[in-house]
Amino acid sequence: MSKRSRKVSKKKSQKENNENSIKIANELSDNQIFRKEEYSMLFTDYRLKTFTDWPFDEDNSCNPYALASAGFYHIPTNEEPDATRCFCCYKDLDGWEPDDNPWEEHRKHSPHCAFLSLNKSVEKLTVDEFLKLECERQKNKLKKLFHIKIDELKHHGKNVRMEMAKINK
């Protein structure tokens, strides 16, 4: 192969890699994996703003500030008005009681959460600490998405099997 052919082939390969990278980035952003709002949950003040209709008041140990400080933000549903999620480990917790300690509950249900091991606020992290936390957070996020997709696939498979059973009757 001539030098010119190798250069053209190399440029073509680089172009394909760039196109693949752009395609992957577009797919990720289409699925809203990288959202600005998601990064705001790193900060206690933003997590606190999500607790607009929290069922317990400031007199209880399970109050919005304590939950936000422990890494949680509010994700209420009709079935679970007290549902919360950790911004780092993505652990969902509900069924809170007024006297629950959010830090203790977080440790009990997600003992390996990287946020819990910090012992300081995100605002006081070094760049290295922040990057390590972000790597853990992204791994946890992808695990959660992966499990959601597995559950969706299982549900779809169950429906297909039911339809196939109807056809075979």
Walk me through this protein's architecture.
56% of the residues lie in helices and 5% in strands. By secondary structure, the protein is mainly alpha-helical. It has a single domain (36-168), classed as Inhibitor Of Apoptosis Protein (2mihbC-IAP-1), Chain A. It has a three-stranded antiparallel beta sheet with strand order 1-2-3. A hairpin with a 5-residue loop joins strand 2 (84-86) and strand 3 (92-93). It is globular and about 65 Å long. The relative contact order is 0.08.
In short:
The protein has helices spanning 3-30, 36-40, 44-49, 64-69, 102-109, 127-168, and strands at residues 72-74, 84-86, 92-93.
Descriptive terms for the model:
3-stranded antiparallel beta sheet, single chain, Inhibitor Of Apoptosis Protein (2mihbC-IAP-1), Chain A, 6 helices, 169 residues, globular, mainly alpha
CATH homologous superfamily identity: Inhibitor Of Apoptosis Protein (2mihbC-IAP-1), Chain A
Q: Structural class, please?
A: mainly alpha
Q: Number of folding domains?
A: 1
State the end-to-end distance: 62 Å
Q: Would you tell me which CATH topology applies?
A: Inhibitor Of Apoptosis Protein (2mihbC-IAP-1), Chain A
Low-confidence stretches: 1-12
- Please give the count of helices: 6
What overall geometry do the principal axes of the alpha carbons give? globular
